[in-house]
Design a protein that fits this description.
By secondary structure, the chain is mainly β. 14% of the residues lie in helices and 40% in strands. Strands 1, 2, 3, 4, 5, 6, 7, 8 and 9 form a 9-stranded antiparallel sheet that branches.
């Protein structure tokens, strides 16, 4: 019986220690983001991200789920769905819609629902 218990403990220890520890990245979206680039594709795949000119615009994603700032002023709230999608509410829409996102420690890319490709890139302030 001791051998079975010992073998089980060793096996579980190996499995536990071999698992790769990864963060879910969800916490990375929260904070203040400065808009740096925008993408508007004409529908043929030729669109490219262009640097934002003029005054700086910011997006604040609060842990409470509220959205502030002047980068996308019509957005009100967000809720993380998974590691690539968030549900967003807007002043101009009655139903929520889905934004795709990619967040790292220093960058955030948002892709709103568009017929043609579109996107926003931010850096953490």
């Amino acid at each position: 019986m001791k051998r079975i218990t010992l073998a089980l403990i060793i096996t579980l220890s190996i499995v536990y220690l071999s698992c790769k520890k990864t963060g879910d990245g969800i916490g990375e979206v929260y904070g203040t983001w400065k808009l740096t680039e925008t993408l508007a594709d004409p529908g043929d795949g030729s669109g490219k991200y262009m640097k934002v000119k003029g005054d700086s615009k910011y997006l604040v994603l609060n842990k409470s789920g509220s959205i502030e700032g002047d980068a996308i002023p019509d957005l009100l709230t967000f809720k993380i769905i998974d590691s690539v999608k968030m549900e967003v509410t807007s002043k101009n829409q009655t139903r929520p819609f889905t934004y795709y996102y990619k967040a790292t420690a220093k960058t955030l890319t948002l892709n709103p629902p568009c017929i043609e490709g579109c996107g926003l890139r931010f850096i953490r302030k």
